[in-house]
Design a protein that fits this description.
Layout (H helix, E strand, L loop, with lengths): L1 H11 L5 H11 L4 H8 L5 H37 L1
Length: 83
């Protein structure tokens, strides 16, 4: 995963300044809600960043699940209406 790799590289750099690390982390992210939230309210350490990542992953998984249920439910409803 991206976060694990970034953490490994960050830990391997001697005397890495946390602000520099966080700046580079933010600039490498794809544009989207997570990157937007980090720009609005930057995190100060990797633990906060990991917590934020976990929350956004959970939100995306929930959104995907709900979209999947809606699609499946809509398809099933159409089949029942035909019969």
């Amino acid at each position: 995963m991206f976060m694990e790799r970034f953490g490994e590289v960050a830990l391997s750099i001697h005397n890495l300044i946390p602000k520099v690390m966080m700046h580079h982390m933010i600039t490498t992210l794809r544009l989207g809600p997570f990157a937007d939230s980090l720009c609005k309210k930057p995190t100060t350490n990797l633990d906060e960043l990991r917590q934020g990542v976990a929350k956004f992953v959970q939100m995306e998984e929930l959104r995907d699940f709900q979209n999947h249920v809606r699609v499946d439910g809509g398809v099933e409803k159409k089949h029942n209406e035909r019969e």
